[in-house]
Amino acid sequence: MVTHPETGSACIVVCEWDVERLCRYGARGALALERLSRAEDGRIAYRMKRPLPDGTTHLFFTGLELLLRVASLVPPPRRTSRGFMASSLQARNSGHFCSP
């Protein structure tokens, strides 16, 4: 934490490497595409990073099963001005909070 010399406000110093790492993390896909392949029976095979304790190295899905699994990784939409934060938004707009 560093204090700004003119304003006296505290700010956090962020390294350029940290910003790049954060951007790469946010831009990466939810699924490693190089691990996907088509099995002989037409199903989609996903090669896991490490084998399961029973020795399983691949998971097999139909197209719909894989789509359902990947869709479950997508978070629900964020709730704004009508969600649980709406009361604090109204209070902030009415002048009950001091501005920094």
How are the SSEs ordered, and which strands pair?
Layout: E1 2-3, E2 10-11, H1 16-27, E3 36-38, E4 44-47, E5 58-61, H2 63-71, H3 86-93
Antiparallel strand pairs: 1-2, 3-4, 4-5
Describe what you observe in this structure:
By secondary structure, this protein is α+β, with helices and mostly antiparallel strands. It is 29% helix and 15% strand. It contains 3 helices and 5 strands; from the N terminus they run E-E-H-E-E-E-H-H. The chain has helices at 16-27, 63-71, 86-93; strands spanning 2-3, 10-11, 36-38, 44-47, 58-61. The strands form 2 sheets. It has a 3-stranded antiparallel sheet with strand order 3-4-5. Strand 3 and strand 4 form a beta hairpin. It starts with a strand and ends in a 7-residue tail after the last helix. The mean pLDDT is 75.
Q: Residue-averaged pLDDT, rounded?
A: 75
Give the count of helical stretches: 3
- Assembly type: single chain
By secondary-structure content and strand pairing, the structural class works out as alpha+beta
Distance between the termini: 18 Å
Question: Which residues form runs of ≥5 with pLDDT under 50?
Answer: none
Q: Shape, please?
A: elongated
Percentage of residues assigned to helices: 25-40%
